[in-house]
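[job 4471] stage=fold_predict status=RUNNING
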Amino acid sequence: MKQRTIIDINNHPTLQSSKEKMEVVNKIDLENQANIWKIIYGFCESLVLKCAVQLEIAETIHNHGKPMSLSELASKLPVQPINSDRLYRIMRYLVHMKLFNMEISPKVTKKYSLAPPAKYLIRGWERSMVASILAMNDKDMLAPWHHLNEGLSGNCNAFEKALGKSIWVFMSENPEKNQLFNEAMACDTRLVTSALVNECKSVFCDGTKTLVDVGGGTGAAMMAVSEAFPNIKCTIFDLPHVIAESPEMPNITKVSGDMFESIPSADAILMKNILHDWDDDKCIKILMRCKEALPREGKVIIVDIVLDVVDWVHPYTKVRLASDLDMMLNTGGRERTEEELKRLINAAGFTSYKVTQMSAVQSVIEAYP
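[job 4471] inference complete, writing structure tokens
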């Protein structure tokens, strides 16, 4: 009778090596699967964020002045009655997102406080991002993303595919959505203009006496510029229905018109998030209208995203790439690299340009005739 050999897998050098290889493979496989699951549930974070804004969780804790227990928080929220178990599960996810902190007191009572990013969820201050959160996560604004694949075919516009008309027509026919959209644009304007007037003062302190904001909307940018540089005569230029709905602002002139036809004359022309809405031909036409409105020593101040195709680890890279897809889906426009912007500027007849980075998603591009 043959003697049975018992092999200890844990101590056998060859088998141990195979086992270690299998463990490495399993770990890599697990990480890859986890990454895909994380992407699949990517929508979860933005919609939980929207829920937190709608429930005014950040304001409630902020106004309370100190950490709140779950029961205290539940009793103060605007939606009543609140299911405490469901609120706890929402708060658990928000803590995981690092928007809120959970503290456990000596009596084992969980209390919630604001983590630093939560301040952007509070309404009523100039850097609040509430309007952008609500607009970007509106069900109609999300609809074009479900037609991303169809948008790759021919000249199909995903927004029109999803909602039956262009974004501009849709907004003009839906006042509630238009207000949501305008508030989000004003929110973004406040964020970028804060960086612009504080970090790029030389852009305005170069002898500029008159400034026209093309597509100035509700005037958020011009109000900030006028306050920071009171010596500059500021004008908002936009479509007639936009100008008609914009508020009256001291020391700011409002002019209606079509930027593809003509633009009011000024020492400098400001365009924030305008060129990214349009294809190259229309951008060149807009820039040509700007050049016609400028004196020889004037300039166009373009505030737009500049894509860096190499810098994949910059904190804004993902946002900038997502914004490019957003433009592709909704307006047919695009975010551009510096080289792509340079081609537009040259094609419109400008002789030189300068790019300045600032602490915002966008950069400043000054184009000179």
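[job 4471] summary: The first helix runs from residue 13 to 40.
[job 4471] exit 0
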